Amino acid sequence: MRIDIAAVGRLKTGPEAALVADYLQRFARTGRSLGLPAVSMTEIDDRRAVGTAAEAELLSRAIPAGAVLVAMDERGDQPGSPDFAARLAGWRDQARDVCFVIGGADGLDPGLRARADWQISLGRMVWPHLLVRVMLAEQLYRAATILAGSPYHRA
Ligand SMILES: C[S@@+](CC[C@H](N)C(=O)[O-])C[C@H]1O[C@@H](n2cnc3c(N)ncnc32)[C@H](O)[C@@H]1O
Description:
The protein has a single domain (about 5-150), classed as 3-Layer(aba) Sandwich (Alpha/beta knot). It is about 45% helix and about 20% strand. The chain is built from 5 helices and 5 strands. Helix 3 (about 80-95) links the parallel strand 3 and strand 4 (about 100). Helix 1 runs parallel beside helix 5 and helix 3 packs across helix 5 (about 130-150). Bound molecules: S-adenosylmethionine. The site of S-adenosylmethionine has 19 residues, from strand 3 and helix 5. Homodimer. This is Ribosomal RNA large subunit methyltransferase H. Belongs to the RNA methyltransferase RlmH family. Its main location: cytoplasm.
């Protein structure tokens, strides 16, 4: 199994970058004994404002062949954290690769969204893509703690 995040925009230094690094490091540490690999991140440059179709082409190159494609989109399903953890465990048990995609300022290309196996919404409000990266990283870590039975997730 591989877990990838392919995202439009580059996270340099700053609070969002620090949070993403921290949650992904915690995920790697907790996930190791659960058979969950560390997350690989691919960033697509958004400086040239090439449009969502061109961004989709670049994002697609980062999606491993055969991977479960999960699009982050405010119109998607709103799973609870335990449901998300159960999906992650299912992909692990089936040795499936999974790739989460996050769009840029103009969102994800409709064609890429339509190709997704699952669309996840973090609520109906639109969040800045850098915060979506932070929240996805946190939910991955939370999922690992749920699978590990650790007390981080108390709900
Ligand atoms: C600033 S948003 C783009 C909004 C854009 N106007 C649209 O219609 O998609 C950038 C990216 O963050 C992610 N995103 C933003 N809000 C989200 C939410 N509530 N749930 C899941 N992903 C979200 C999506 O991947 C989106 O493409």
